[in-house]
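TL;DR need structure tokens for one chain.
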Amino acid sequence: MITNDGLKQGDKIPSERELTERLKVGRSSVREALRSLELLGLIETRRGEGTFLGDFKNNQLIKLLGMFILEDPNVKNDITKTKKLLEKDIIRNICLLTDNEQLQALRKNENEDSDILFDRIMDLESNRLLYRIWDVLKSYSAEIMDDYAQLDHNSVISFLDALIEGDSEKAIAIYERKDSSRNLI
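>> reply
TL;DR here they are.
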């Protein structure tokens, strides 16, 4: 419906009555669905004005899904493996960047804490959904991990240089050396 009607962020969505007719469902079902979408931040209700499409980038769906993930007793291993896969994909994607100006700027901050630097590198991922999933997994892994190793200063420099050169194999090899000493960056 959003695509068919050409609706964009900030546009008014059809009324409850119209949604009921178009979707051929009861009004209570439409109200419940709208309440759920509002809780997730996908829509915004303005008194006297109507209901509008929200900014999907700010929705809470990823965090909500994460809460369910944490209920599984095997979650520690799953989170670690998934986070590692995402980090490798993000590293590969960043190595494909044709404009490495942002990486060059990070290279100037090479003495920064490696966790902060790695977060800044991950933030260069253009796929915002991939980045948000990684960010949630990072938060959860910080809660469940007792300790983890960091890259030493020389490895941070080598890692940044590999990213700037677009050498994903070298960057991932440095990343995995760090990983083998304990956990992820």
